[in-house]
Every structure is written in structure tokens, then in C-alpha cells.
Write a structure and sequence with these properties.
The chain is mainly alpha-helical. The protein has helices spanning 3-11, 14-27, 32-43, 47-55, 60-65, 92-108, 113-116, and strands spanning 80-81, 84-85. It has a single domain (3-116), classed as uncharacterized protein sp1917 domain (Helicase, Ruva Protein, domain 3). It is built from seven helices and two strands, in the order H-H-H-H-H-E-E-H-H. A two-stranded antiparallel ribbon has the order 1-2. Strand 1 (80-81) and strand 2 (84-85) form a beta hairpin. It is globular. The termini are far apart.
Length: 119
């Protein structure tokens, strides 16, 4: 990924991408609650703290940087997204964003939640 694109991702508002995650899931008959469950699992946010992050329009850098507790099982999220192999992404924030992208993709593809959440 080009450094300018990395910087752009850092500054993107989580509140701006969140509705896109929900829309992607709902198009495939999945729910906002499932999207939220994925976010809670990955980041340690809960309903209250996630809503606060959305209301404050924090950027992705802060959303992941201030995540209450990144799930240690996130390293089990592997594969290719946007042409990049997730486990080979060197920039930690970009890798975390791609983790979430991959989980939402799996949800939209109809995967069972216990598989998505690496249970």
C-alpha cells in the first residue's frame, strides 16, 4: 500500500465506514447486531463505547489505537483482502483494519458466527 493511502486510512472516520459495514452485511441478509458482535469481539468495545466512538467521529487510527482490548485470536484471521495477504501486512493499523474488513466479508458470504469469531 502506498504511504499516502496509508495516511488516508489512518485519518478516515470510523463513523464513516461503520454504515458501509452494516450495509454490506444487510445486503446479504445479515444484521447490524452481527456486525457489532464482530467489532466487540475484535476490539473489546461494547455497545456504549462503540456508540461513543461513532458519536465522536474518531478516526481509524484512534479507533484501533484506543480499542479496549484487541482479541489475541485476531492473528488467526488470514487470507487475502484487497490483494494483500493479511498476515503479511507490516503496518499494524492497516492490518487491524483489514482484519475487520475480512470478518465483515466472511459475514456477508454467509459464514457462521462461530467460524467468523475464530471460536
Amino acid at each position: 500500500m502506498h504511504p499516502k493511502n496509508i495516511e488516508r486510512v489512518y485519518k478516515m472516520s470510523f463513523a464513516g465506514v461503520y454504515p458501509m459495514y452494516i450495509q454490506k452485511a444487510e445486503k446479504k441478509n445479515r444484521t447490524k447486531a452481527e456486525v457489532d458482535e464482530i467489532i466487540y469481539w475484535l476490539t473489546g468495545y461494547d455497545e456504549k463505547t462503540l456508540q461513543k466512538a461513532i458519536d465522536e467521529k474518531i478516526n481509524l487510527e484512534d479507533f484501533f489505537g484506543k480499542a479496549p482490548k484487541m482479541n489475541p485470536n485476531a492473528v488467526k484471521i488470514t487470507g487475502v483482502i484487497c490483494g494483500d495477504r493479511i498476515e503479511e501486512i507490516e503496518d499494524k493499523l492497516i492490518q487491524q483494519v483489514r482484519y475487520l474488513d475480512k470478518l465483515i466479508d466472511e459475514l456477508a458470504k454467509g459464514k457462521a458466527m462461530e467460524k467468523i469469531l475464530r471460536s
